[in-house]
Amino acid sequence: MDQEKSHIACIGILCADIMGKTIDQLAEKGKLSLVDSISLHAGGCAANVAMALSKIGLPPAIIGKVGDDSLGNYLINTLKNESINVEGLQIDSQVSTSASMVMISDDGERTIIHSLGANKEFSYDSIDLEIISRSKILLIAGTFLMPSFDGEGTVKLLKFANEKGVLCCLDTAWDASGQWMSKIENSLAYLDWFMPSYDEAVKLTGQTNPHDIAEDFIQRGVKNVVIKLSNKGCFIKPALEQGYMVPSFSNVQVIDCSGAGDSFCAGFIAGLSMGWDIRKCAVFANAVGAHCVMEIGTTTGIKSMAEILKFIDQYGEGYSIQ
To answer: How far is Cα 259 from Cα 278, in angstroms, rounded to an integer?
Structure first.
């Protein structure tokens, strides 16, 4: 591997997650209810992917913005402790660090109340382009939650990365502003891999069949598509190939779905960085996502590559990727 193109860069949102479980309904206004646990975690799409990659054994660089406050310090220290390169993080004393209150129900699904915070001010000018130039793979994670970067800033960065020969990937978040395709359409032609969730992909295209969704993205210029289908696995549409499903692992006890999609992206990108074929990347990604949901927190359950490969051997119906 070219030493100058040896690492992965994760760009996007970082936030502090205050997570409570079990919350199936809120207390009446002015009242109090008890939960099993409340804990603080590093989160946000870019941070989740970065930490998952590091736990797998491929520590990346991360680029984003936090506030000059206690939550920002917590995020930076947590990422450093995970051996992640934080040179690309900006600290902005004029804004607060982004944060979420995550309410986890008994079935592991979560409801999120989110403050954009510093992510709202993150822009193209916040990015150390030298880090991008040295990268083998770039993931933009959290599109639709970075209003100063989404759209024109994203296109500008992707053009730069394309010129430098960087493999470009993008994952979306839920667009509460309702702009959807109009916000990202100009970015799609610069993507080697587009990685939305099914629900987000439906909103983007108006299609409901994964085959039709993927074809819509391909027609708009995306080279390869992977659609995350939650507990059903994923749908893959590589360039110039027929699309196909890769099923999830059925032997998983779901504790918390937080970060599952980000963990999937980390697993898939890890496979790409290792030069695996696409089906193997998808199987590994499903396995990383499965590990995520088995514990509370967006990356708490992620294991090393060797442990995840062992899990696939044991529970992957004979499909080994070693």
So the answer is: 22
Domains of the chain: 7-23+38-315 (3.40.1190.20)
Nearest in space to 36 (alpha carbons), one of 17, 23, 51, 48: 23
Strand order in the sheet with 110-115: 37-43, 15-21, 99-104, 110-115
- Per-residue pLDDT band for 7 (boundaries 50, 70, 90) equals confident
Do the Cβ atoms of 296 and 104 come closer than 8 Å? yes
Regarding pTM above 0.70, the answer is yes
* Strand order from edge to edge, sheet including 61-67: 85-92, 61-67, 7-12, 135-143, 167-172, 193-194, 224-228, 233-237, 244-247
- Is pLDDT at 3 greater than 50 in this prediction? no
Distances (CA, A) of 282 to 35, 39, 42, 196, 225: 36, 31, 25, 14, 11
- Do the strands 61-67 and 15-21 form a parallel or antiparallel pair, or are they unpaired? unpaired
What Rg do the C-alpha atoms of the chain give, in angstroms?
18
Return the pLDDT at 319.
53
| Listed residue (53, 108, 104) closest to 270, CA to CA | 53
Q: How far is 71 from 89, CA to CA, in rounded Å?
A: 14
